[in-house]
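Final report, Chapter 2: Outcomes

The project's central promise was a pipeline that accepts a single protein chain and returns its three-dimensional structure in a standardized token representation, suitable for archiving and comparison. That pipeline is now operational. To close this chapter, we reproduce one record exactly as it appears in the project archive, with the input sequence first and the structure output second.
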Amino acid sequence: MIETLLLNVLFLLFPVLIAVMFFENKLTKSNKYILILLASIALIFCMAFPFTLELGFIFDLRYIPFIIVALFGSYKMVLPLYLVLNSYRFFIGGEGIYQSLMFSTVIFIVVPLLSKRFMQQSAKNRILYAVGVTFLVTAFYFFTLCFNYSDLTSEFWTLTVYAFVIHIIVVCIIMSLIEKVISNVKTRDLYFQSERLKDISDLSASIAHEIRNPLTVTNGFLQLLQESKTMTSEDKSYIEFSLKELERAEKIVSDFLTFSKPQSANMVYANLKDEIMYVENIMRPYSKMNQVGIQVCFTNSLKKKYDENQMRQCFINLFKNGIEAMKDNGGTLSIDVAEHNKNIVIKIEDNGIGMTSEEISQLGKPYYSTKKEGTGLGMLMVYNTISNVKGKIDVESIVGKGTTFLITIPV
């Protein structure tokens, strides 16, 4: 029995080890399907090498990958495993086929319902959550088996004890490895992000000022030329185009300047209310022009030290992006600033065009933008500003329904 259980454990560790070796650096949509395939293979091997009791009962650890994938991936990802599990079970044949079908169907329907709440937990709580779900599923499994056998031998009860212990231990090990992989990916991304921000910060202040001076001079001469009465309308149109391009170049330079190190004169100790109200007032004309309403709810009393200018620019970029996401059909930009567990929590929500998971993963990277004329420096500045105050940004978005930015700043 022990040898067979250990062999099942080895099969279950196989997908996690493969993910660490080959897919830790880049978890794309296609790679997710590969991980589902690996989980399916592990599930099949567990079913192919079970152990059988004298009373005819067959047992293995097939439901562990099924439960974990259901918690992480909801219905869309667990459906292939559900089909593989039952198809292979029918292929094996023997007694208990329909009981297995009914039990796996119950898990398939119930467990993914817990996925959203599961994903909102911290890493430690997700491990405990998965253990709790596995314990309840195993208890329900053996409870239903009691009605299939009139004589429950000591072998059955020994198996029950082993099953509970092994399921809990294996789930703890696998979930710990998964959370470690997730933590490593996040840590590496934060490191690369901080290195990029550092490089830009070092270059921006020295380069941007040198570029701005000739831009200002050129802009002034072009405006003087535009007032000339001897120029044709065609020549003036060329100057107008040139002025627009200079204005755009000036905006890019300004974006670069926001990455320079905060000046002590700009540092304040406040609860962000003045910054939110200031940005709301200056963005209202732009929102009305795009038929977008702005709703602000401010209940925060916690204070934090931050660079006033950078924080205002951060909110301007976020508000502007939210408004532009709704400019075609209109909508409402909702801003909620509250406090929770000694954290300032800022929720900025729109009902615009939304983003895909791939687009969300690219946010904050230099020169990446979802807009045709965007430079990507605006969101890079947002991530840099929030990083300076030791905060974090979580993004949730559904294409066609909207995007939510959840900013958590510890005090």
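Archive annotation: The radius of gyration is 29 Å.
This record, like all others produced under the grant, will remain available to the consortium after the project formally closes.
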